[in-house]
Amino acid sequence: MSEMDQALADMANSSHHNSGHPPQFTGILTPEGIVVAISSSSLKFIAAKENEVIGKAFWQTPWWRHSKTLQQKLRDAVATVKETGLVCFEATHRDADGRLFVLDFSLQSVIDDNGDILYLIPSARDITELKNLELEHQETEAGYKKIFKSISDIIFIADQNGFFKDMNESACRTYGYSKEEFTGMHASIIVHPDSHHVLEKFFQDLVASDHFEGQTKERRKDGTTFYADVKGSKIQFKGEECFLAIVRDITERKKAEETLREREQLYQSLFKKNISMMMLIDPESSRIFDANPAACSFYGYTQKQFKRLKLYDISILPRNIVRRQLHQARSEQQNYFNSQHRLADGSIRDVEVFIGPIEEKGRSFLCSIIHDVSVRRKMEREREELIADLQNALDEIKTLRGILPICSNCKKIRDDKGYWNQIESYIDQHSEASFTHGICPDCVKELYPDYAHKLFKKNNI
Q: What is the C-alpha to C-alpha distance for residues 315 and 84, in angstroms, rounded to an integer?
């Protein structure tokens, strides 16, 4: 199990054990709302298997199918959270037996250092009992007492100045204070100084809109801290206008977000900052899903242009061969190929490609690492041509090696077929040597004895 999966599982299991309410869920979505991961408690609630929801739009999963209104609300939330960072609303969900539950649902975006959204984190907690109790005992002290005893979420009631008037047992257990210690304490005591500005905004929102929500860093009596999701609204308590705050520990969710952020940073280091040319390719469509800066520089395309291309737009190989190679790489039958790729300027380069399957952002891709071997291939071709030329020359030289049968009188040479050839004719046929003809002094004396003396004297021989 990966760190991300473990963090998600821990987050889901921790929430389940703390709340005592099985109908809840948490998961991870792509920025477009596609399910990447989901907790086991979420699947158990609807008696579904993981492969029935992974890869699907969240609003099309069984949790939402009972209400088209909620489906549309969730789609709107996916669009809105990109701007707000957090969207919360109440939703109803039916379990595997058809029972209807009310859940407090939130959708939060996880962003990287550049402000780009990496993932969306949906989470929901069963507030059915709380809602029922609120309806039955609204604005009555008895109602608040039952609510306090019935739910595991942390609940505070404070006056308009932020001093606590009442709280439930969960608050006492979580923070380590007794009811007596809590009563009359100001809310800033349990809010870490890093989040005091959030507390101030809570009071401002209460004045402006009668409710508030946000995330804070909380501090226990022993000094330890945890992250919390806080929601509240104005109420009447014992005839006095107060506010009710519901606090939920989201530390595990924060850990999951940090794991995702670290994973994205690792991806940035291994892919984006790699000096080798790299691409992520969709094995089904052959489309180039991403290309790192090194690939953009080599091929001459921007990243935006790359994402409109398919692999056979840059490979000069026929499409059927490209598809076959992708299939071989996806099934891990072969992960190395020699090819030729066309750059944006139309030039052709020799490349060697190392390619294999990976999982990224909940999808299956082929990761391709490309090396430009044009210079090496050219040197190899030149070396092969040189070797061929040398071999041909060696073959020619070998024909003149060994013992040549030559006539001791006329100096003719016998060839392999038994014919006698003039020596110049034989050498001309078996080498690249050529002849010019002259006459030596001895032959001049023999052939032209009357002129030899004068000729030698004239030429100082």
A: 43
pLDDT at 454 (0 to 100): 72
Q: Which of 431, 276, 403 is nearest to 352 (CA)?
A: 276
- What does the alpha-carbon distance between residue 31 and residue 311 come to, in Å, rounded to a whole number? 26
Domains and CATH numbers, the chain: 1-126 (3.30.450.20), 128-261 (3.30.450.20), 274-376 (3.30.450.20), 404-461 (no CATH)
Q: Rounded to an integer, what distance in angstroms lies between the CA atom of residue 365 and that of residue 144?
A: 53
Task: For the sheet with 348-360, list strands across it.
Answer: 288-291, 277-281, 363-372, 348-360, 336-342
User: What pTM does this model have?
Assistant: 0.39
The half-sphere exposure of 68 on its side-chain side, counting CA atoms within 13 A, is 0
Whether the Cβ atoms of residue 141 and residue 236 lie closer than 8 Å to each other = no
Closest CA to 366 of 413, 305, 323, 427: 323
Residue type for 215, please? Q
Ramachandran class of 220: left when φ > 0, alpha when ψ lies in -120 to 50, beta otherwise: beta
Average pLDDT over residues 2-18: 46
For residue 454, give Cα distances in angstroms to 181, 221, 351, 403, 461: 143, 133, 76, 41, 10
Contact call for residues 19 and 13 (beta carbons, < 8 A): no
- pLDDT band at residue 344, thresholds of 50, 70 and 90? very high
User: What distance in Å separates the CA atoms of residue 275 and residue 376, rounded to the nearest whole number?
Assistant: 19
Q: Cα angle at 73 between 233 and 98, to 5 degrees?
A: 90
Closest among 46, 48, 51, 41 to 15, alpha carbons compared = 41
Residues whose CB falls within 8 Å of the CB of residue 244, separated by 6 or more in sequence, listed in order: 155, 156, 157, 232, 233, 234, 235, 237
pLDDT tens string 145-163: 666 666 778 999 999 899 9
If you search the block for the tokens 């892919």, which residue do you land on? 271
Alpha carbons 55 and 68: distance in angstroms, whole number: 20
Residue at 30: amino acid letter: T
Q: Are 132 and 105 in contact (CB under 8 A)?
A: no
Rounded CA-CA distance 145/149 in Å is: 6
Kind and range of the H or E element at 355?
strand 348-360
Token pair belonging to 196: 């005091």
Tokens at residue 223, please?
A: 């000094």
